[in-house]
Amino acid sequence: MKNGGSGKPAPLAAAPDDAQPHHLGHRERLRQRFLDGGDAALPDYELLELLLFRSIPQRDVKPLAKQLIQHFGSFAEVIGAPLSRLTEVKGIGESVALDLKIVEAALKRTMKGQVAKKPVLSSWSSVIDYCRLAMAFAEREQFRIL
Fold first, then answer.
1. Which of 124, 146, 113 is nearest to 135 (CA)?
2. Alpha-carbon distance 58 to 77, whole Å?
3. Taking every pair of C-alpha atoms in the chain, what is the biggest distance, in angstroms?
4. Domain ranges, ordered by start, for the chain
5. CA 133/CA 110 separation, integer angstroms
6. Are 72 and 81 in contact (CB under 8 A)?
7. What CA–CA distance (Å, rounded) separates 59 from 51?
8. What are phi and psi of 91, to 5 degrees?
């Protein structure tokens, strides 16, 4: 602080009355970014945050979303993780883990619906996508003939 030669510190400038912490409105800004740009506008942890907002409405879920991504590796791996492994993460109870498993079930059902309407394995990338969705995060090894 400058003292202006008087020997006393100059008073600090007062913050404007309307100054708000940066986290206020975070959820709404995140929702709006999703509405404007879809899932491509958000990194994995922010998409996970959007889901966690619904499961944990009264808590800052950003650190938890980042922790889950760090622990499991990606959004897909969080969603695909077994219920028992999800609940090992501090802050994830059975209710939140169940919500994530419901999202996984919805994704699988959506993929099954899409598969019924077109050739499934028309490219190498579709084989990889199918395998990843169907069994990449299973607790037991699986053998399939495609």
1. 146
2. 25
3. 85
4. 26-105
5. 11
6. yes
7. 13
8. 100, -10
Across the chain, what does the average pLDDT equal? 81
d(CA 110, CA 46): 22
The CATH architecture one would assign to domain 26-105 is Orthogonal Bundle (1.10)
How far apart, in whole angstroms, are the C-alpha atoms of residue 45 and residue 115? Answer: 28
Quick one: how far is CA 39 from the chain centroid?
Answer: 11
pTM of the model: 0.65
pLDDT of residue 15 exceeding 50: no
Distance CA 87, CA 101 (A): 12
Token representation of residue 100: 């994530």
C-alpha of 37 from chain center: 16
> Would you tell me how many other CB atoms lie within 10 Å of the CB of residue 50?
17
Taking only the tens place, the pLDDT of each residue in 113-137 is 766 666 667 788 877 777 777 777 6
Place of tokens 């419901």: 102
- Whether residue 111 is predicted with pLDDT greater than 70 in this model: the reply is yes
Residue recorded with tokens 């991504």: 69
